[in-house]
Write a structure and sequence with these properties.
- The protein is mostly helical and 160 residues long.
- The protein has one domain: Orthogonal Bundle (Arc Repressor Mutant, subunit A).
- The chain contains seven helices and three strands.
- It has a three-stranded antiparallel β-sheet with strand order 1-3-2.
- The longest helix is centred in the first third of the chain and has 25 residues.
- The protein is globular and about 60 Å long.
- The relative contact order is 0.09.
Length: 160
């Protein structure tokens, strides 16, 4: 008797169960998706998207940043950063400033309104992320964080 081929979803489950790397990839993707869902829902209640919030948080915690370098830090293309900074400027949360030493260099910096916004919103946002990862103990969170950093650095170094 000839057996029917497994549906694609069942094939990927079977492949993942036999390959630890695929299993990790699937688990990592799903975990990231759900933790991001919690964070995104909170961010949207404040009228921003994840990228806008990430750029604003970067500027608040790390100070003024050259536009060309923001993309590297929040994993976005420079063209998208221009658009995001434009949106944040329209909302009064950040501004552009030309470098005093190199007029070709433009910095983005948080405004007083942007600082007040982050100071008000960030503590609750942190609690939402803590709740989203509460399925792990504090020790497990630390271990997972260390392992994922190691994984990310290795994957980055091997990317050609």
């Amino acid at each position: 008797m000839k057996s029917e081929p497994l549906p694609i979803q069942e094939q990927s489950k079977a492949a993942a169960s036999s390959d630890p790397a695929l299993s990790l990839y699937i688990a990592l993707s799903r975990a990231s998706q759900w933790v991001n869902a919690h964070a995104d829902r909170d961010i949207r209640t404040h009228g921003l998207n994840r990228t806008e919030f990430g750029v604003l948080e970067l500027l608040y915690h790390r100070g003024p940043q050259p536009l060309q370098q923001i993309g590297e830090k929040v994993l976005m293309s420079s063209g998208n950063i221009t658009y995001v900074v434009d949106k944040l400027e329209k909302k009064g949360l950040c501004r552009r400033r030309a470098s005093q030493s190199d007029r070709r260099l433009i910095y983005a910096e948080v405004t007083e309104e942007g600082s007040a916004f982050i100071e008000q919103v960030f503590p609750e946002h942190t609690k939402i992320i803590q709740a989203a990862v509460a399925g792990l103990s504090k020790e497990e969170i630390t271990i997972a964080s260390q392992l994922l950093k190691k994984l990310g650095k290795t994957a980055q170094q091997s990317f050609k």
